Amino acid sequence: MKLSRRLSTRGGIYLPKQHRLQLLWLAGTLLILKPTDDGGLSLHRYYSLLHHNHTGDYIRVTSSGAVTIPKKIRSQLGWKSGISLDLQLSDDGGLFIHPHCIKNKKEDF
């Protein structure tokens, strides 16, 4: 399932309740952030037994169902407020976030 969202001025992304429930992300759920090779970001639920050696960044799901991407990560990825992002739910309970790409119409010919 794929949806699009805009990044807020403070780096927040709202996830609809149906998608949070599908991912089992309740308020306060701890998530691991990992940049992907293609300029995106993956968010996965933190499990202490599986991720005890993880040295990356963590975020929590807010009570309103939003996640806030830290400023240093947004800067590394070149994401500015208002950017349109594609969110893709993965089969393993994660979420992949990539900047929305608009194809140039001239390239289609």
Question: What does this entry look like structurally?
Answer:
- The strands form 2 sheets. A 6-stranded antiparallel β-sheet has the order 1-7-8-4-3-5, with no helix packed on it.
- It has one domain: 3-Layer(aba) Sandwich (Chemotaxis protein chec).
- A hairpin with a 5-residue loop joins strand 7 (84-89) and strand 8 (95-99).
- The relative contact order is 0.29.
- The model is unreliable at 104-109 (pLDDT under 50).
- The chain has 2 helices and 8 strands.
- The radius of gyration is 14 Å and the shape is globular.
- The protein is mainly beta.
- It has helices at residues 17-23, 71-77, and strands at 2-6, 12-14, 30-35, 41-45, 57-60, 66-68, 84-89, 95-99.
Helix content range of the residues, please? 10-25%
Radius of gyration: 14 Å
The main pleated sheet reads as: 6 strands, antiparallel
Number of continuous helical runs? 2
CATH-wise, what's the superfamily? Transcriptional regulator MraZ domain
Give the ordered list of helices and strands: EEHEEEEHEE
Q: Which of globular, elongated, flat, extended, rod-shaped describes the shape?
A: globular
Tell me the strand order in the biggest sheet.
Answer: 1-7-8-4-3-5
Total number of domains: 1
Mean pLDDT: 84
Cα separation of the termini: 29 Å
Quickly give the structural class.
mainly beta
